[in-house]
Amino acid sequence: MNLIKRNENFAEWYTQVGNNAKLFTYADVKGTINYLPNGWKIWELIKESLDKKLQAYGAQNVQLPLFIKASEFAKEASHIDGFAPEVFTVTKIGNEVLSDALYIRPTSEVLFSQLFKSEVRSYNDLPVKYNQWCSVYRAEKNTKPFLRGCEFFWHELHCLFSNAQEAIEYTLAIHELYNDFLRDVCYLPVLSGKKTEGEKFAGAVETYTREVWSQDGQCIQTGTSHFLGQNFSKMYDIKFQTQDNNFAHPYYTSHGITTRIIGDLIVVHGDDKGLVLPFEIAPTQIAILTILGNKEPKVLEKAKEIANELESYRVNVDTSDDSFGYKISRQEACGTPFSIVIGPKDLENNTCILVSRDDGVKHTVSFDQIKQTIKQEKMEYFKRMYNKANEHLQTSIIETNTLEQFKENVKNAKISLCYWGGDELDEKKIKELTGASPRCVKEELTNSDKVCFFTNKPAKQLVYFARAY
Predict the structure, then answer these.
(1) Is residue 52's pLDDT more than 70?
(2) Strand order from edge to edge, sheet including 60-61
């Protein structure tokens, strides 16, 4: 399982990691992939964990159609303008040319708006919090497995509220839920904040984001929470009867996390041996590797005994005839958090060897202490992985006051934290000039004497800038 080094060719390393871990293979249509059992299992575990958290915030799961009428999609002008270049369009069914083309959903605000219009009648029907797990389709030009594809999977949560305050509070609550989920389940530190005007979701009043920082010095937008105001409810004529017998348009929010998160795990945690997975979402959490297991029945018997003792975890006993070297490299490539090694000599000593995937450290553990040791070590495993990723993020942030320093930061794959007073046009100029874009707002400024590093206008925000996938 030879693997190119990250510092030699990061893009090729990324692909090799995914292939060696058997996460995916390329499909026939550009920008699409086949999710292999290991890759899909990671997504299922993410889905299971996140779905519980969303339901605790009142989300109810539904399933909506794949197709949207072009005439319906066009009602919200800024929305269609934002997605028009990426939309897959069906113009014929058999030999019949459609008078109203069908769009294959790039996102589902339109579909949910149509549903809400038929579901919501009174203030008693609010709030509504509907979530679906599905795939969406966007015609991306530059594709990369998981990180950017023409088809990806996600959850999308769509909600209606009777007033703006409730909607904004819920938008921020899901934003914080995502932050906690990315930290506690995926071990991912993030830049967290509001998007600038030029970067927010098409049709949104405000967009809140989390930006993951890759080892190659690029940000990855991972999970967004949108306050959509009344834009969609007005366009699609969604109304409810208020307590005082008037009629009003509800306030809309939407939220989502995608299979891009699998790519995040690779680029943040991966090393020169392969994938390194968080314990909570690893398809195999503990691998038990036997030395001479097929020739020493007592070794195999002990391995199965330990597997039974650890039945609350996802445990795999490798009973193959492969060499021990190959067995351990396979677990390293797949990112298995812990490997337990047992051989004839270990039986004599009543011990086994516990190997941590993240740092390769080996611990000699007595058989009667293995369950307690795993419980302790998985907490240390989280701390080491999260702290390592967070140190890389924090040491990459450079407070920047000049365009020259900004350009140097981009060249050196760093994040620029800048005072900003520009507009959407200035954002485009920055990106054209340097390749970097505003990732999120760290802080809104009032009565500040700071000036924008790019325009010399009064600064309105403190903003993170970086290159992005």
Answers:
(1) yes
(2) 60-61, 128-137, 151-161, 251-258, 219-229, 206-213, 190-194, 437-444, 461-466, 415-420, 397-400
- Per-residue pLDDT band at 77 (split at 50, 70, 90): low
| Count, residues in the chain | 469
CA–CA dist 166, 113 (Å, integer): 19
Extract long-range pairs of 295-304: CB within 8 Å, 24+ residues apart. 296/343, 296/344, 298/344, 298/347, 299/342, 299/343, 299/344, 299/346, 299/347, 302/342, 302/347, 302/367, 303/340, 303/342
C-alpha gyration radius of the chain: 25
- Determine how many CB atoms are found less than 10 A away from the CB of residue 39: 22
Band (pLDDT 50/70/90 cuts) for residue 217 is very high
Secondary structure of the chain in HEC code, one letter for each residue: CCCCCCCCCHHHHHHHHHHHCCCEEECCCCCCEEECHHHHHHHHHHHHHHHHHHHHCCCEECCCCCEEEHHHHCCCHHHHHHHHHHCEEEEEECCEEEEEEEEECCCCHHHHHHHHHHHCCEHHHCCEEEEEEEEEECCCCCCECCCECCEEEEEEEEEEECCHHHHHHHHHHHHHHHHHHHHHCCCCCEEEEECCCCCCCCCCCEEEEEEEECCCCCEEEEEEEEEEECHHHHHCCCCEECCCCCEECCEEEEEEEECHHHHHHHHHHCECCECCCCHHHCCCCEEEEECCCCCCHHHHHHHHHHHHHCCCCCEEEECCCCCHHHHHHHHHHHCCCEEEEECHHHHHHCEEEEEECCCCCEEEEEHHHHHHHHHHHHHHHHHHHHHHHHHHHHHCEEEECCHHHHHHHHHCCCEEEEEECCCHHHHHHHHHHHCCEEEEEEEECCCCCCECCCCCCECCEEEEEECEC
Q: What gap in Å lies between CA 66 and CA 28, rounded to an integer? A: 21
Provide the CA 52 distance to its chain's centre, in angstroms.
17
pLDDT, position 74: 84
Cα–Cα distance, 269 to 335 (Å, whole number): 9
Q: Which pLDDT score is estimated for 65?
A: 97
CA distance 190 to 426: 25
Residue 321 confidence (pLDDT): 84
